[in-house]
Every structure is written in structure tokens, then in C-alpha cells.
Fold this protein.
Amino acid sequence: MIVVTGATGHIGGELVRLLSDKGVTLRAVTRDPRRTPPLPGVAWVQADLRDARSLRDVFLGAETMFLLTSNAEDMGTLQRNAIEAAGSAGVAYVVKGSALGASSRSRSPIGRSHHEVETVLQGSGMAWTILRPHVFMQNLLDAAPTIAREGTVRAASGDGKIPFIDARDIAAVAAAVLTTPGHQSRKYVLTGPEALSYGDVARILSEATGRRVEYAAESAEGAEARLVAEGASRWMIESALALAAYQREGGPTAVVSPAVKEILGRPPRSFREFVRDHVSAFRGA
């Protein structure tokens, strides 16, 4: 029995589908059961990681947990609640979705929060594996309406190279790590097959959509003003600006990892494949 948190997001939703296809029995945790498709072997459970009391029965009889939440200021609290509830129920193994650069020294609040949870997990007594993916390709889908309308990709990353990863590959790695031996006490950095600048992203989008898409390189101040106008929290703004600064600096953020291919036995999806699969969104359909 596997418990999957974050079961309706880009990663969690795909992971639930993959595990169901494998014939795995699982509980998929959601706050909104109306978003839950019926799948073989999947029991959808309504719970809120903010409410520790709602987690009392979620983990009973479970052996394994996949731990993932959205990036938000209370992320650390939510994930610590899940770890405590899982440990109390006798869960033996946890696979945590983390982030590239998770560290106590990170300039990004997201990176520091993930590191804090990683530390709690490693001290919990449960076996663990940590997945540290790079920037999701799916993040660009949030900007797809603007890209289609304005023909512009905006970022404060300068000419920095980023090995974007498809969230479907993160889910596939998680499914493999959850169901095959040999991954305990490992930290895997997950990337796509190549490092691309946002200029490269704009060029690939232009080729795929048949429409001109340009990269508008923002200053840190310009990006901050845009994010404020969009209603982003200060926590998320600080995280986004820190990540962009790391990308401008290059170095570790541009390194392509072999982990996806080593675990899955196939290369990760390319950005071109991702765009081809979602080309209608980038055309504004």
C-alpha cells in the first residue's frame, strides 16, 4: 500500500495513473475529491495536510509514502505533518519530491524549506529517497496564454542555461523508485536531456507554433514588479528572483544529470517533445 500526497498536481496525477497501470494498490490524498478520476486500485482519500487530525487514518496499513506538496510558504509545515503522521502509523519508506539546490545556504526560500523537510525526513527513522528535479517544463503552461497572446517569453534568467524537465518524467522516476529496490538513502537530481536558455525556448516555440515568439529578458526589478502585479506572495517572489539569479550565474544550475536515463532506461523527454505535446496551448487554442 502506497500513500500519494499531492495526488492531483502535474506530478502526483501522473504518478497515480502510472501506479494504477502497474497494478499497485494506493491511497491518493486530495483536499477536493471532485477532481479525482476513477482508476483501478486507487482509493481517493480526502485530507488536508494543514490539519494533522485529518491524517490519523490516512496512513494506517500503508508501507510507503510519496511526499509532495505545492510550493507555498507553509510547505514545510504541511510536509512535516505528513512525515509525523506516516511515522506514527508505521510507514517504513518515504520518497520525497524536493528541488534542485535544496540547502540551508540557499538564497531561495523554497530551497531552504525543502532542505529543512529533507533533514526531518532523514532523522525520522524511516527509509527515504529524495528526488531533486530542476525547473518543470509544465511551468511554461501557466504562461502559455500570455505567450500566445503577446508572442513573448519573459524571465530574469539572462542567457543562463536550464535543463528543464518534463513533470511526466519526474512521475515516472517516482513510480520506479517507489516500486523497485535499490534506491533507499539516495538523492537524485532530475533534469531533461539538454540545457536551454529562454532564448532557446522562444526559438523552439516559434518553430513548433509557426508564430514568432521572442524572449524578453527582464531585470530583477522588472521581474519583481511583474510578479507583484500578478499577485504573487513575497515568499514566492524571493524564491523566483533567487532562482533566476542562480540561472544567470550558471555553473551547477546548467548541469545535465544522467539520473532519469539510469533509472528509467530511456532518455528524458526533450523540450521539443513537450512543446509538440502541448502546442495547442502555446497557439492559444
The mean pLDDT is 95. Residues 2-135+166-191+255-268 form a domain with the Rossmann fold fold (CATH 3.40.50.720). The radius of gyration is 19 Å. The first strand starts at residue 2 and ends at 4.
